[in-house]
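Researcher: Quick sanity check before group meeting.
Model: Go ahead. Protein one:
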Amino acid sequence: MPFLGISGMQYSGGSLAGARILLAEDSNVFTSMISKKLKELFDIDIEICRNFEELQLAYDKSAEPIRLAISNINLPGAEKGEALEYLIDLSIPTIVFTGTFQEGMRDELIAKDIVDYILKDNIFAVDLLAESICRFLTNHRHHVLIVDDSATARALLSSRLKRYNFRVSVAENGTKALEILKANRDIGLMVTDYNMPDIDGFELTRRIRASVGSHELRIIGVSSSTNRLLSARFLKAGGNDFILRPFIDEEFYCRVNQNLDTLLQIQSMRQIRLSA
């Protein structure tokens, strides 16, 4: 059945069955709600682990790779967060689903390179979790290009996007970016720095927009400049969004999602019009 997420995500690709997903959660209420929701929306059957021992056994019992784990921070037998540490040490992509969120915990979670965190403090918690799972399982259909002359910045953005399961290409300058775009027509989003030596972000965007519209490629500009007018100049050059550095992970991922959601919606509308 078609799925419309709280943030605006639309998915109608059918069953996502086949991916091995673990749920480390001891609450009967939440295990029941999550199991029912994922089965109903995406035909996903999850493996439930109600304590740390069951989580360890689930990993050991099968050679089939775990595609994604959803884990409470405090689990019986792992009251100090050992279950999350266990999953991270095994390099298993993990969404944290927790009712405990004290000051400083957010930074600790982000530092562990988790996929996402969902708080149990509202009635939409399970819906938000379902959307986060759906995004992770389908983000591989999106190809993102990062353009930045700083190797550090390219590595940082690339690692963030790969953590969310996107396919990523990188370019160290505008000339290389144009070559990659020409060779990879499936790229749907470009994240480009403004200040680059050969072709700056503005000029790169102008050149791309001469032949590629927003219905084919979304462009997000980034800059660490304090000049607030850069965003206006970038948007007038044909960009779709602009973020000032330093930005936090949640903001960056939200902007990426919003632009890709818009791209899919535009493409879907165009297909409907063409087939009418």
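Researcher: Fine. The other one?
Model: Protein two, sequence then structure:
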Amino acid sequence: MKENQAICNSCSNENCFIKKHIHLSNMQSYIEKKHSFTCKKAQQFIIEGAPIQGLYFVQKGKVKTVKTGINGREQIVRFTTNGDTVGFRGFGTSNRYLIGAYALEDTVLCNFNNEVMLDILRNVPEFTYDMMLFYAEELNKSENNIRKIAHMNVRERVIDTLLYIHRKFGQTNELINLDLSRKEIADFAGTTEEQVTRVISSLKRETLIKTVGKKIGLQQINKMKSEIMEHKYV
């Protein structure tokens, strides 16, 4: 990992927890203790089960968060991008990370270690309140996803995954701005690489999507949404 000097004051990520609270006078001393670095594509920067080293904030790039499931298989539980927080699961309640995290492209990360983060939570009530709301929202999302996935068939889960990454990363030139292998799509959708390949081939024949190499573009988003509407797509 390469050291990087990401400056909070000039950061454009208005959704970042740190950026949103940078105007508070008691945040300035904590910002000076931040550690920034560049993580290369495919490099792991959080190891599941390793001692917690604080929270990470994505300054620029893309990250996948994984958790080991049945038979040791990694399940992708979250994708993150500019301004998002990584490593919050288990922070404050566990001494070890409950997830692992990899860079999906060269990514600039900002890290605040355990001591600094705990000091912020103790001494900056506005930050602590917003963090509490963030945890509540993430818990609600997780519960809704569990209920939704339990009632979806394989095709619906793949469509739901494609719609999610489209919402998260957008499209350029009719292609989603994220390179994912069919295995990674399967690891997020909770199915197999072979099933993902079959569903994608079917969606292409129906002209709902297009592919260029690994890249996928959504061509008929409303039709795809309508297929999973009964599962309360949002």
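Researcher: One line on it for the slide.
Model: The two ends are 37 Å apart (CA to CA).
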